[in-house]
Amino acid sequence: MPSPFPGMDPYLETPELWPDVHHELISQIRAALNPGLRPQYVARVELRVYVSDQDDPGREVLVPDVRIEKRPKARGARKARRPAAVAVAEPIIIPFLADPEIKEARLEIRERRSNDLVTVIEVVSPTNKIRGARGRVSFMEKRDGILASDVHWVEIDLLRAGQPSVTRPGLVPSDYRLMVSRGDDRRHGRYWPVSVRQALPPIGIPLRKPDADVPLDLNAVLAATYDRGAYDLSVDYRRPPVPALATDDAAWADDLLSKAGLR
């Protein structure tokens, strides 16, 4: 079953589902690009690693909410006799981040023979958009390092929540953002603001001159991601998405989903 939305499906942004969506997006972008990169270039998944700690604001999207968990009673089990003085209260189960070392995947395009880095493609994660978060610091340091080199930078932001990496006067406010900064033309970044009501535009992934850009059909990537991830089995379109849509967009989505028979 395909997504009912024309472009990015806002129901895929929920924190519980997004890590899997992010993984699948990276895989589908690589699968879409490698046939056009052969034989001179190759796209590979690489990891950006940073350490989160107890003071990291990004933990709100890394660790689930605190919840109360009760153990089910076995059928026919007798209630143990205990003195009232030693009765034990039900605990609150607090989830912890088991591994403070966080790994976020990105794509790197390299020249096959020299292994030189040519292009970095980042699909933005929630931690990359929280001010003061370790994930944002790591993301911005990596971006600034690339922008100071001759390596091309491609940024795909399909999350409505949080602080975008680029905020400049005159930029049209948008739900989603795509950006390409070419290593041979840093003064003129390519920027696409996209509404939740729109299909994602195809973009060109830059390579070394004189090689032409490789086209990337992001809407086709989204469709493949949704299908391969079987996200229709996890999404409940009867409820509002998380985060919630703006009022006008919520009314539009309600009409869209009602016409699709999902509400």
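The record above closes out task 2.4. Task 2.5 opens with a second protein, given below.
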Amino acid sequence: MPTSFIDTPLLRVGYEMSGPDDGFPVILLHGWPDDVRTWDPALPALHRAGYRTYVPWLRGYGPTRFLRDDTYRSGQLVALGQDLVDFTRALAIGRHALVGHDWGSRAAYIASALNESQVAACVALSVGYGTNHPGQTLSYRQTQNYWYHWFMATARGERHVRDDRRAFTHHIWNEWFVAYKPDDAEFNRTAVSFENPDWAAITLHSYRSRWGHAELDPEYAELEARFNSVPELNVPTLTLHGAVDPVNLPQMSERKEGFFTGPYERRLIEGAGHFPQRERTAETVPQIVDWLRRYC
């Protein structure tokens, strides 16, 4: 489908729009290392259910570009959340639903807190809410799973991200897919987005800044302070987690009920690794549609 573009205060965002013209708007956010193609299997069912879908490339991916060369190339999670709020405002679509995976889930949680009156429902895949803080408790197994976070804090890791990004991300895919191993064609359809000139900088800053290994963008100081203590969410939220996710263990999304003042459920997708929407489409997408139908 054709790529559309819209300007926000910082970005020219590339996105794909499809589905019935009068459908309730649903914005789908991809994660790392991934892009808009991750939602291709979900779109037909969403369109049949009557939803209009908007699928943007995040900052640093695909055709999305910064408007100014001097803008800090921040990968902070609050920056991703603010980007999402800015995108929905630029579209002027009014009330909408958010569906995110990985980085996209974190952005969706944050945008739900920032723009509560406009978000009718949120579905987050593979990431539990309240897991952004560097002081969070991690099991030794989860610490081991996050090896790539700290690898990217080293000079060697930076070289791999900048100079060997396809091999590095292909290794990640091979580790994180469980239900099947994607072939080269599936990987390459997405990996073209990693050629964005800001992809390496955004990737490195995102993972380094999460653990205090990079300076934060002062433009987001107020937002960072707001999310240092996890704000409660009133937006109806569904968390879906692959039951055999090898990177974000399912335990990472357990016992989050206390963060929600509105409707909240967590469900496991049996047999799915880190990419339920790709690996177990038939089991995952109906649950997304079911949640949206309840609240949209």
